[in-house]
Amino acid sequence: MSAVAYHLDPRHGLDGLTVREQEIPAPGPNQVVMKVRAASLNRRDLMLMDGTYPLPATPGIIPVSDGVGEVIAVGDNVTRAALGDRISASYFVRWIEGKQSLAQAGEQYGATFDGMLATYAVVEEDSVVRVPAHLTDVEAATLPCAGVVAWAALTSPLSVLPGETVLTVGTGTVALFGVQHAKMLGARVISITSGPEKAELLRKLGADEVIDRNATPEWGQAVLDLTGGAGVEHVLDGVGMPTLPKSLQAAAYGAWVTTVGAFPAPEGQNNGDLLAGKFLTVRRIAVGSRTDFEAMNRAIAEHGMRPVIDRVFPLDQAVEAYRYFRDDNPFGNVVIAMPE
């Protein structure tokens, strides 16, 4: 296949994803050109496609925030990358560390800056991140969004401590990274899922206890029972408003509850007083900074952790990859690999 790039026309579903030939781009000052080796899909890529993501996609944008590749050209003044480096890019183009500004939140690869679903990608030097050497390209491509958001949820502003209990809700890629990160941090992990097959996969991934929400609809109380009534210190809710009431029920006094899902509450759901007199912190976060990404990579390299991969598609089957990710309930990351 010659060099190509996919482009997204939002609100047209899979019909809005089209492919065009691509010339090798030239970097501007403080820019890096990478030959993409693999790109990984996230739920936000589906939301950008159907117009439900909070930030609208620029029409004609090259989609997908997550990818890995080899540096083939650098612009003037670049010091963070050199020819031949294997790199990724942070989800937010210029959020390096600290509190995120609204302007930084609006600069995202695959939404307002061209992303990774192409033979070549241009990234700003501020977002360049080197990936752990032990990971394959397919594995490394999964890190920038789901990996970093799970890491940021469990490490900032207060990190999970050894011996604490973390509750993960759901089996999307954020929740799966959450299980792996929590175990690296020395925590006990309780996971909520939707069936026995996924429950067994979560146990193999490292979850200490798994609750099937279909078999145990009142799983908030079940989590309290597993913790002797105390609740969990950290909740990583990868679903959002539909599960938040029970996540709050399962939380301990002084807990941190992080929700990363964008689903609205089910129609007609009346949550009442969700806090029920508890003093805790509930937050909704937006991935993480470049500094978070780099800290996560150091931990992944130290522990030899490997992301969960469900299926890999070739670049010429990118539309099929989107369809599979949307419709087939994968367990793990769906990755698009570029031809050699």
Describe the protein.
This protein folds into 2 domains: 4-142 and 307-337, Medium-chain alcohol dehydrogenases, catalytic domain (Quinone Oxidoreductase, Chain A, domain 1), CATH 3.90.180.10; 149-284, NAD(P)-binding Rossmann-like Domain (Rossmann fold, 3-Layer(aba) Sandwich), CATH 3.40.50.720. It is 26% helix and 25% strand. It has 10 helices and 15 strands. It has helices spanning 43-50, 102-105, 137-140, 143-155, 173-184, 196-205, 219-226, 244-250, 290-303, 318-327, and strands at 4-8, 17-21, 31-40, 66-74, 86-89, 120-124, 128-130, 165-169, 188-193, 209-212, 232-237, 251-259, 281-284, 309-314, 333-337. The radius of gyration is 20 Å and the shape is globular. It starts with a strand and ends with a strand.
Domain count, please report it: 2
- Portion in strands: 25-35%
Number of strands: 15
Mean pLDDT: 94
The main pleated sheet reads as: 7 strands, mixed
Summarize the structure.
The protein is of the alpha/beta class and 340 residues long. The protein has helices at residues 43-50, 102-105, 137-140, 143-155, 173-184, 196-205, 219-226, 244-250, 290-303, 318-327, and strands at 4-8, 17-21, 31-40, 66-74, 86-89, 120-124, 128-130, 165-169, 188-193, 209-212, 232-237, 251-259, 281-284, 309-314, 333-337.
